[in-house]
Amino acid sequence: MHKLTFTPASYTGWGCLNQLLPEVEKLKANNILIITDPFLKKLGLTDHLEKPLLENGYSTTIYTDIAPEPPLAIGEKLVEFTRKHHFDLVIGLGGGSALDLAKLAAVLATHDGKVADYLNLTGTKSLENKGLPKILIPTTSGTGSEVTNISVLSLETTKDVVTHDYLLADVAIVDPALTISLPPKVTAATGVDALTHAIEAYVSVNANEVTDALALQAIKLISGSIRTAVHDGQNKQARSDMSYGSYLAGLAFFNAGVAGVHALAYPLGGQFHIAHGDSNAVLLPYVMGYIRQSCEKRMKDILDAMGISSGYLSQEDASYKCVDALKQLVQDVNIPSTLQGFNIPEIALEQLADDATKQTRILARSPMPLKREDIYTIYRAAFDGEV
Ligand code: NAD
């Protein structure tokens, strides 16, 4: 048996931000908190939301005291702020960092205690209600946060999550027009993040027919368009494919889970403040190379979905070719292909392996069980550049 969970309402497609006003009307909100990052406000992206809301008599507050890969303290401060005011709707606008904070603030506005109390690894409290309504509007094509029930926070040496279906958006609005301003480096990192979601969902032990369909279509769209989106950011078709692919990948991994790549990426992000997409991207070929034997048939399918025909290749040969294709893709979008390329010192590998081993919930979805020695071997390969 498989349980599938989807956000109640989603809009996708160029210009679909025009659905915001009707959705706000349906939610009967009046006092609206918009959570976004300061750079997006400076870019003027918030105007596209705020103007129509103000013109229609809504009261809005824009909160920008946030940062990429948000540390726990930023979450605590935002939740305190949200509790003090009487908002009746939270809108998140931005990449995964802003969206994760928006859902956290919306839910914890109606709870007691600290954010830390609700963390997955160390928290002691459970969420009791869905809090304020939330509308999530991504401006990166990466995390799929607009359709997941996860909020990720950075801790001192790793990352942890608050996760519950109460964190699901009431409405997701996925308008690729909002991603046109993404610089190549962020397009690359977030795009490979989305690809990683789709690939890990497809090889997950929890995969099912529905998540398979979502994941394969996401792999096709993202691998077909990521190079164009990175090198020609104004290309509307590539931006649309990336947005839709990232949304589908979000639905896939939310329902099937991610695994080894994410478990190893979290400590990299936590300890070295490497962007989440970059952490996933540098590890993707090495983790897939290591677990290859446990999912050869699925890797053959991934290769086909990437538009590289596996033809008459055996499953084993196709799985090797898939690893090569992933390595090539990461290089083509100019992401360093080794840990050394991110200035990770060799001495850090042991601690990274210790921390990744603690991500038991995520590791449980890997088609190949990954113990501490496996995890160390993968980090070592990623350090040396030997898939
Ligand atoms: P991000 O939100 O941190 O944004 C990265 C950078 O891109 C920021 O500097 C931001 O200002 C800029 N940016 C965003 N949109 C832009 C635009 N349209 N134009 C120009 N610049 C823009 O990046 P992200 O990768 O989207 O999110 C990363 C966070 O999401 C991490 O904390 C990660 O752990 C988390 N995450 C959450 C989920 C989930 O399901 N909730 C899944 C994966 C990752």
Automatic annotation (TrEMBL):
InterPro entries: ADH_Fe/GldA (IPR001670), ADH_Fe_C (IPR056798), ADH_Fe_CS (IPR018211), Alcohol_dehydrogenase_Fe (IPR039697). Pfam families: ADH_Fe_C, Fe-ADH. Residues 11-176 form the Alcohol dehydrogenase iron-type/glycerol dehydrogenase GldA domain. Belongs to the iron-containing alcohol dehydrogenase family. Residues 187-383 form the Fe-containing alcohol dehydrogenase-like C-terminal domain. Its EC number is 1.1.1.-. GO terms for molecular function: oxidoreductase activity. This is Iron-containing alcohol dehydrogenase. PROSITE patterns: ADH_IRON_1.
